[in-house]
User: Fold this.
Amino acid sequence: MRSGPVVDGRVGVFRRYWRSFRDPDLAGWKKGLRALVGLSVLALIPTLALVIYILTLIPSTPTALELGRAAEARPSIVLAAGGEKLTQFEDPFHEWVPLDSIPPHVIHALLATEDRAFYEHNGIHLRRTVAAVYRTILGDTQGGSTLTQQLASNLFPEEIGSQGFVERKLKKMIAALKIEGRHTKRAILEAYLNTVPFIYTANGIERAARTYFGKPASQLSIAEGATLVGMLKGTMYYDPVRYPERARQRRNLVLGLMVEEAYLSSAEAARLQATALGLRFQRLPGHESLAPHFTAAVRARVEAWARARGLILERDGLVIRTTLDLPLQREAEAAVRAQGDRLQAIADVEWSRRGMPSLSGGPDAYVRYRDRIEPFGYFWRSRGSVVERHARRSAAFDRLLDSGLAEAEALDSLVRNDAFMDSLRAVATRLEAGFTALDPKTGDVKAYVGSRDFSVDEYDHVSVARRQPGSTFKPFVYAAALQRGYSPLDRITDQAVAVDLGNGQTWRPTNSGSISGADLTLADALAYSKNTITVQLMDEIGPGRVALVARQMGITESDLDLVPSLALGTSPVTLLEMVSAYGTIANQGQRHAPRLVTRIESATGVVLETFGSRGTQVLTRREAQTLTDMLRGVVDRGTGRGIRSWGVTGDVAGKTGTTQRNADGWFLLMHPRLVMGAWVGFNDQQITFRSNYWGQGAHNALFVVGDFFGDVEPRFGDVRFPDPPRYRQPFDDESYADSILTALDAYFERDSVGEPDPAMIQPVELGEGGSDEMLARPEEERPDLRPLPARERPRDRNAREDDFMSAEEMLGIDEGDDGDG
Assistant:
């Protein structure tokens, strides 16, 4: 008979313990005692593990808070290149008010709503915490945060973190115990009320009172205090400015909770519940910025510099001089706003219903039609999983978890809330854009627009967001080819390509249109954005060399995957990196890193630091001039020639870009004195333009750049890039004849001028499975080899109808959803 595992000749301790229960001579009470001891040991193991885990978290949690009043601050100011004040960096706790200045009814409303047992616990509400642990074990997460824990989160968001429910809750509990062990309940209440964040840059009860009611916190009425406290469940969702009825209902709920806690009589609550909100809303001066995304980027760069020198931006009164050109910034913001609104209308209408036809008349036709449809109605009806995913990502979902609801209950509550779902859908399907422009000779950033509206979307689509650049990445492949000795007149066959990826996998890139089989020059291949030829070049040069060239030219922050598809722009990058890299081309191959700040001075005018602009030659002048001329072809005869319809008449070069499923639209434009670029898309990459036509960078991002540069081009004068080097190609009568025949075929087989062929942009119905195939692709590519006719400059920001919808000029050269164009 087996006796179990033996270690060094001895039976294991746990097996001996188990066998002792089978001893017939052992008394029953002894067996019970041994069982109790065994269970205690088993329970002790996870307890010890939890204790050890908590001990490892303690060093990473904040130290006990210094809750005294914030020191007197001298805010640092940020100046544009012309000396205009852009903003100032103020201490968010600067308007600290003592607890004695806050009316008791505001405190009562807070305690009744957020933490009824505040005076009874030591920072941890034991009953709610046990309930949260129990529900977590069952698979659901549940809240239980006390005011002290919320204070820790408000002041130390990075240290507490936002990922990992258990770790976040434990860190908040540890921080709360530290706070409670050192400070009184009054001090904790005072700190909470002075640091709790509201929206509209109102931090703390004092700024909130002045923002919403035009009075100091000391003068808040019972109803006004209840309104502000009610907002804490969701400051944006219960914003009384945008959603007054929602805020009023929440205020009335807070008043009812005050009755339950005997802070208010039923009669008084009923009287107050019948009153209006009585808002006197005003944004407080000093916090707003004339270029909010730009100044946020400046702050991110300057803070580390200041910290290393023991300086505090909010208190030491620094003068930060920047490169921003305020007149150009205003033009850029106007272009992003105007074209963003028009492109939003297109997306709204395209996704409004099943079988929505294309509209003639350009973007303005979609703007006029938008009032007649439910924006993105068909999209949301056919994509239930997207709705749930966005609901789970929302701040409202997190707040419901913190309030005590399980995940399933919180999700169900949100989905059944029509007002919330309307708001969620509007945010998720909001088209976004980014734009920036810089001086290629210095790297000075002249304009910087991170989104359509900073107050709606603070996410920076210039230097923070990373998106696939599509065909705008192709110039790096051609730059590497020029370094290898290729000529723009060298020819490569436009043919089917099969790239062996290993493991039995093969990648077969295609063009947006048909594969012609013709021998094209590299100049034409780039102008018409031929994927097949670019991939063949990549195969000859190698991804490693192309990535190195891209890094030398300006892609310095983003990771580049060394795979064949890198040639078509599959590695995400930032818009600022791309514009900087194109600046290298425009500046004769000399790279200047983007510069936002030129000088920092003390409050007394002493220069503390000067930030220079040092150039590095990464391409030869011949290579840069050749590549510039090749990119001229893009705007003269290729995918970017629509830029001329915006009144741009000077010597410019550029490149369009579109990624798979139209998730990203790009356009970059180079002028000898200014290089600029725009990105257009949705924050959620599963939400895209429905049609290939409007999803192309030539028909969305190009509009933003065209609107901007069409207005400001006269400011930069009539300057030209240097003439390109001359290349000699041996005469090949067969290739020459083939190119002539190709040009003649393209010229005489064109469609008549007018609106785009509906068959080319007609939406394809989604199948029952919700296929992502939106539209039929064009059957063939018909490049227009004729000179672009001169056009009058648009009189306003809305270019003429035929500037957008001419099949001749806008559909004759197709971009693809595989990074083509």
